[in-house]
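Holo prediction — FE3-S4 cluster.
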Amino acid sequence: MKLYIETVGCQMNELDSELVVASLRKEGYELTHSAAEADTILFNTCSVRQHAEDKVYSALGRLKNAKREHPHKVIGVLGCMAQKDQAIIFKRAPYVDLVVGPGQLHQVPSLVRELRVEGAVRLQRMEVSLGRKEGSRAQIERSHESFDPLRDPAMRPTPHQAYVRIMIGCDKFCTYCIVPSVRGPEQSRPPADIVAESRQLAGEGCREIILLGQTVNSYRYREGERMWRLSDLLAALHEITGLDRIKFVTNYPKDMTNDLLAAVRDLPKVSKYLHVPVQSGSNAVLARMKRGYTVEEYREVLERTREWIPGVAVTSDFIVGFCGETDKEFELTMDLVRESRFKNSFIFKYSERPGTKGADLFTDDVTDEVKRHRNHELLALQNAISEEDNHAFLGQQVTVLVEGPSKAAEKHSEGEAHPAASSEPVQLMGRTHCDRIVVFDGNPRQIGQLLPVTIYDANAHTLFGEVVTRQGGAELFSLSLPTKV
Ligand code: SAH
Ligand code: SF4
Ligand code: F3S
């Protein structure tokens, strides 16, 4: 039996897809890259912006004939859009068999089995969680089950890195955002489960784990008298033999506490890289977004972070063209980016989400043209800063965890055997401890290793380097230079 799966959205969705695939492999499925030859076709979806939804609805549209010709194919829509649109999906694409929200993904194998057994009998199944107003907090929490079964190492994008979920849901309710309604209430996983899962991953050869939560630094878990915070969890994970790097995303600015900064400073395995999205540089816009902090408070967080953790790389997200955003307000965002020197920023055009407070309270009144223009301008500014900061790495030695072939090498070898299977020289990519992307020539055997690389060129997004070898002058050269992480 063959399974085709397409995933859009954030790292949380990538992890969910990995787990769904692993659970279906236990049922005898193997993955295929062609929807045409698949028995089951799944879309793991995202609702954060309209564009992400449109992509899935048009992909579904293209399957209409396939389903008519092969009625036994199972077509399923999973994830955030399944939770948000529910039966609307059956209305828009009546040939869809299965709709499963992010809180019910553990049921996918049994649901698919059921649909296949029934064969020609046309069944449609939907499993979703309660909405945020459809029960008591405890009932709603229970309806969003965390899906974290035993991991299947073969299913990870790279065997040396893995995502580990430490919380589900979100309670911040920023007015533009759909996540709290599709992912449900904020719930932290027990530390013992997180440590056990990470230990298992390290045992399987994983060198880097990336802890996931919508507001990962809001992590709280009460165990008897003891309250576990993210800093406590980092200290516990740091003890795991075999792990070299621990990263975590995404941070909520207001929860950037000193205990966390101290943990990042003092625990060498924890990456000195923090994603702390600010969204806007205008207090009026931040208030409309209900982000819960002012620009002055964010500046204080940034200053404190840099004071406590010298050399830290900070990144951010921005939304341009939020309801009522004036030229003046946008200029304040430009000012903040100019002074903050983020390593990089993800910039999004505001996309109104039905059912959010933002859609109820405000008008989406910034034209798409203005949004596009602001997006462009902010990105150009950020790119100039990123490039400047990356140039500071020229001649420096960094330590790179090798992830795999670079994008260019991957394209070049499409259709050939996996590069790790050969020992031909190939262009590889990896990341520094600070999450900077490094591209260099190497050997597929080096995938999964931590390597010293000297940087000789850089642009806004990438550092280009050369592996430091033990023979020759390169080693001497590298010893004479300070090492940046
Ligand atoms: N929990 C994370 C990420 C949420 S989604 C956080 O709090 O930062 C990732 C990013 O998408 C957000 O940071 C925001 O910049 C953007 N985003 C969320 N809703 C959006 C919307 N309606 N339109 C445009 N961008 C949005
Ligand atoms: Fe959305 Fe805000 Fe929660 Fe992030 S913190 S997921 S932006 S509501
Ligand atoms: Fe999208 Fe859901 Fe993630 S809406 S951004 S996939 S939590």
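READOUT: Residues 9-10, 12-13, 46-48, 80, 178-179, 182-183 surround FE3-S4 cluster (ligand 3) (CB under 6 Å).
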